[in-house]
Amino acid sequence: MAAYPKAQYNAARGRPAIGRGGFIALGAALVVVGILSIAFPLVAALSFNLLVGVTLMTGGIFTLVHAFRVRRWQGFALQALLGLIYLGGGIIFIANPFAGLIALTLTLGAFFAADGVARILLALQIRPEQGWWLFLISGALSLVLGVMVLLGLPSGWSVAFLGLVLGINMILTGIAFLTCTGTIAPGRRKVHPARDIR
Fold first, then answer.
1. CB 185: neighbour CB atoms within 10 A?
2. How far is CA 57 from each of CA 53, 81, 155, rounded to the nearest angstrom?
3. b vs e for 118-152, b when ≥16 Cβ sit within 10 Å of the residue's Cβ?
4. Suppose 90 and one of 57, 68, 102, 108 were both cysteines; which one would form an S-S bond, judging by CB atoms 3.0 to 4.6 Å apart?
């Protein structure tokens, strides 16, 4: 069983690689954008908020168009309602970006808090299994983070927290691309017909 991963690793090392220039450029760009997002978290958060608004509006328009194309369908009314919800949500996010941003931050804080509670309960359920305390610690940290985000909404710092999260995510993704070797997937090598003629 141990020989298979090693063989797979050696096979991957033997495959040709795509030029790394594109990976390096993309990785560097993501790292720079991530650093800027951390330096200006509110701007990054607002940009993300506008992106969500545009996405919701686009989804709403497509949903409504499809609903009216199949208006004889028994689910027409609900699909049209769903499209209106998407469209209305997108308009709110774009027309009042700070309100949309607060809604996103509120959702993020609630998610962290719920995730923390779930992990704490999981830790208590599996105790004394090995590693249960890691679930307990990570759950407690997630719960504390969620409560901090929710309590920080009135002061506004938790709104900027969304920009920090985006920045960190972009930096980690950029580093991943910078370290990517660009190995070609099996079966995707360019075939040269002239060389295959015998």
1. 8
2. 6, 14, 30
3. ebbeebeeeeeeeeeeebbeebeebbebbeebbeb
4. 57
Residues spanned by the domain of 154: 20-183
Q: What is the pLDDT of residues 10-63, one digit of tens each?
A: 444 554 455 667 778 888 888 888 888 888 887 877 887 888 889 889 999 998
Q: How many residues does the chain have?
A: 198
* pTM of the entire predicted model: 0.58
Q: Tokens for 27, please give them.
A: 């990785």
Residue type, 44: A
Find the range with the poorest average confidence among 77-91, 120-134, 147-161. Answer: 147-161
Residue 6 belongs to some domain of the structure:
no
Question: How many domains does the structure of the chain reveal?
Answer: 1
Residue recorded with tokens 């009135």 = 154
Q: How many CA atoms lie within 13 A of 49 on its CB side?
A: 28
More confident residue, 58 or 163: 58
